[in-house]
């Protein structure tokens, strides 16, 4: 009985995942989205900033902060690290219980095939959740500019405070 409870808890834990902002496009709509990507900035001295990447230049990053719905400018020199998500992640969490239960049809080979299926489906699920993601480890600030709402800078006729 206790094993069934652990298995149920493990499945609930695996099936639940972090949510991403709804404004991110699906992976097949990446090239037609008019919004910037979701960015998480780790500040050197202040709290972390999360939201839509509006613009970036040589000195500052402008982010539409998701909590307060206002734009905030952060100096590039004050950013410790960043992570960027430019599209919705693929959800493969359903494969873990399905393929684990599918091994019941394998008879006595179940004891060999179930761990293999479990390891493979967990690996695929984790890879799907990490798709469409970059960080400061594999991207420069100049490359980061291409994922903003205004990659060439905020136009002069746009008021940053009015961006929603």
Keyphrases for this structure?
164 residues, alpha+beta, elongated, six-stranded antiparallel sheet
Structural description of this entry:
With 164 residues, the chain is α+β, with helices and mostly antiparallel strands. It has 4 helices and 6 strands, in the order αβββββααβα. It has one domain (2-89, 132-162). The mean pLDDT is 78.
Which secondary structure elements does this structure contain, and how are they paired or packed?
Blueprint: H1 2-15, E1 38-43, E2 49-56, E3 60-65, E4 70-75, E5 79-85, H2 95-102, H3 110-129, E6 133-135, H4 141-144
Antiparallel strand pairs: 1-2, 1-5, 2-3, 3-4, 5-6
Helix pairs in contact: 2-3
Short description:
With 164 residues, this protein is an alpha+beta fold. The chain is 28% helix and 22% strand.
Largest sheet: 6 strands, antiparallel
Beta-strand content estimate? 15-25%
Alpha-carbon distance between the two ends:
52 Å
Shape: elongated
Secondary structure: number of strands: 6
Spans of at least 5 consecutive residues whose pLDDT stays below 50 are none
- Report the mean per-residue pLDDT as an integer: 78
Count helical runs. Answer: 4
């Amino acid at each position: 009985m206790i094993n069934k409870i652990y298995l149920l808890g493990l499945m609930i834990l695996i099936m639940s995942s972090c949510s991403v902002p709804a404004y991110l496009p699906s992976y097949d709509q990446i090239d037609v989205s008019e919004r910037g990507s979701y960015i998480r900035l780790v500040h050197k001295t202040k709290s972390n900033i999360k939201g839509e990447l509006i613009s970036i230049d040589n000195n500052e990053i402008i982010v539409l902060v998701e909590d307060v719905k206002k734009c905030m400018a952060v100096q590039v020199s004050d950013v410790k690290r960043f992570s960027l998500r430019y599209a919705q992640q693929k959800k493969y969490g359903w494969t873990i219980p399905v393929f684990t239960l599918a091994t019941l049809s394998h008879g006595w080979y179940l004891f060999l095939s179930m761990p293999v299926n479990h390891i493979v489906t967990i690996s695929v699920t984790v890879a799907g959740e990490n798709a469409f993601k970059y960080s400061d480890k594999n991207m420069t600030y100049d490359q980061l500019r291409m994922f903003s709402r205004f990659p060439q800078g905020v136009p002069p006729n746009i008021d940053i405070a009015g961006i929603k």
